[in-house]
Amino acid sequence: MTSPMGCDTRTKRGESASAPRPTRFRSLLTLLAALALTLPALVTHADELRGTGDLGLIIERAKGSIQLVDTTKRSLLQRVEGLGDTSHAAAVFSRDARYAYVFGRDGGLTKVDLLTGTIVKRVIQSGNSIGGAISQDGRWIAAANYVPGGVKLFDAETLEQVADIPAYSEETKALSRVVGLEDSFNNRFVFSLFDAGEIWIMDVSEDPRKPKLTKFKNIGNQPYDALITGDGRWYVAGLYGEDGVAVLDMWHPERGVKRALPDYGKGEQKLPVYKMPHLETWAVAGNLAFIPGVGRHEVVLVDIATWQKVGVIPVAGQPVFVMSDPTGRRLWVNFAFPHYDTVQVIDVESRAVMHTMHPGKAVLHMEFTPRGENVWVSVRDANRVDIYDTETFKKLGELPANAPSGIFFSSRAHRFGL
Amino acid sequence: MKTHPWLTTLIFCCALPVQAGGLSVARQQDLTHFVRQECGFCHGLKLTGGLGSSITAEALKNKPAETLIAAILHGIPGTAMPGWAPHLSEADTAWIVDELLKGFPE
After folding, report:
1. Nearest chain B alpha carbon to A104
2. Cα separation of B84 and A336, whole Å?
3. Which of A37, A308, B50, B66 is surrounded by the most beta carbons within 10 Å?
């Protein structure tokens, strides 16, 4: 746990992004940062009166820590340690955008105060977890677990557990790993059972201690990840065990889960799939969704009115994230091993790659500032987060971070399904 | 370096102990990073499993080395495990398996 006065957990405060500089100078800075660690604790940024709308965090994958950041000053605020196994961590934000809830691989759920840089509360809620979501009203946190397979619900204020939903399938007579847990309107969560091939809706609008479950069976073989569109309407699960996707209309769950995109997936792929694409961020612009191809070097265009594939855009590798900037005008794409040093930008109007860059080995994630004037890019093996201007593609600066992976800005607080 | 799969297996059955020790220290460090990071996506940074199975020494103790080598090089059909043969040599793979069975270095 990090103590409120934990000067030993802090990087050099307010270190701003700067243009790339020679290694020797960087070593000097590292030394200065190390010296700064030995100084007594300074005032925290909670002492200033300030908002949280331009704050965020970077997951440090290898060290069980996060870096709190300021996207206006493009600076690191401080490191928070003691979050357990952050090798595949994700975060959601409270509706006042002050607190981050970080889900760790080891089943840890950690509530972090962005203003004070302290851990408010931490619980180990399972043995092996994949992520979670926050309810529409911001009162409940749901965590998706592999071991033991199921979903647990927590009070967002206290992290007191209020419900435990084992993902026990009546078909397989066993617990299933849970994936693709998303939030939707009317205080509903929706998630998929990887081992059982089911999708469940968990409604906490009436009694969160006894959530109402609606189960859809035989939705497809091995759903491995899912997304919900930004309006909370379409829940789409990718299938590992077969081609196609499973689609649930949250406006009309009574219509059941439908299958779509029959030729989407691994199919008779010619290429090994080194990392399955993340589905959480399928870019949607107008009626078109832009989704990562699986086992193919392409972005797939889907008309979401009909759920038909209407085209492909060839790209540099197998896409992992295809992310629309907030204007919907451009898509930023990163790639799986071995093309993970590359980022490409697609112009939506002309449906063509307009820019290619090579930030370095292992670009794991990208996050736009709330209105999309900048994008932050994590470059794992370079221990660096790069900041780019999204209009000119000029690099505005870089920040040191230890094996950075996910980047999460507080503007996510007010959006569904992130 | 492309060899016929059965021949690969045969080579490994005979040559595993010698080959496992034959990599340079730099290559061993590269492979350690590779396993922790790339394999770690599915198997967990601590290799205790995720969507992929646990690949700790304890979890693998009853698996023959040649089965594991084949799984890494050629993948496991019907699962998410891809074949890594385009990116790992047979000596690399033998070393990785040897280390996994002993308890993988940090």
Report:
1. B44
2. 13
3. B50
Asked if the Cβ–Cβ distance from B51 to A146 is below 8 Å, we say yes
- Tokens encoding B45: 């940074």
Task: Tell me phi and psi for residue A378, to 5 degrees.
Answer: -90, 130
Tens digit of pLDDT for each residue in A375-404?
999 999 999 999 999 999 999 999 999 999
Q: What is the distance in angstroms between the Cα of A186 and the nearest Cα belonging to chain B?
A: 30
Q: Write out the residue range of the structural domain in which residue B88 sits.
A: 5-102
Determine contact: B49 vs chain A, CB below 8 A. yes
Q: Does A179 touch chain B (CB under 8 A)?
A: yes
Does residue A90 surpass a pLDDT of 60?
A: yes
Six token digits for residue A352? 């063509």
Integer Rg of chain B from CA:
13
**Structural domain count of chain B:** 1
Instruction: Report the distance separating Cα A319 and Cα A7, nearest Å.
Output: 40
CA nearest to B88 within chain A: A338
Query: pLDDT at residue B19 above 60?
Result: no
Within an 8 Å CB–CB cutoff, is residue A177 touching chain B?
yes
pLDDT digits (tens, 9 = 90+) for A199-258: 999 999 999 999 999 999 999 998 988 999 888 999 999 888 888 899 999 999 999 999
Q: Quote the mean pLDDT of chain A.
A: 88
Closest of A95, A197, A176 to residue A140, by C-alpha: A95
Phi, psi of A130, deg, nearest 5: -120, -15
Cis peptide bond upstream of A148, omega within 30:
yes
Residue holding tokens 């040649």? Answer: B66
Chain A residue with minimal CA distance to B85? A272
Quick one: A48 exposed, middle or buried, by C-beta within 10 A (0-12, 13-18, 19+)?
A: exposed
User: B41 touching A, CB under 8 A?
Assistant: yes
Residue B36, domain CATH: 1.10.760.10
| C-alpha distance from B45 to closest chain A C-alpha (Å) | 6
Quote the minimal CA–CA distance from A370 to chain B in Å.
28
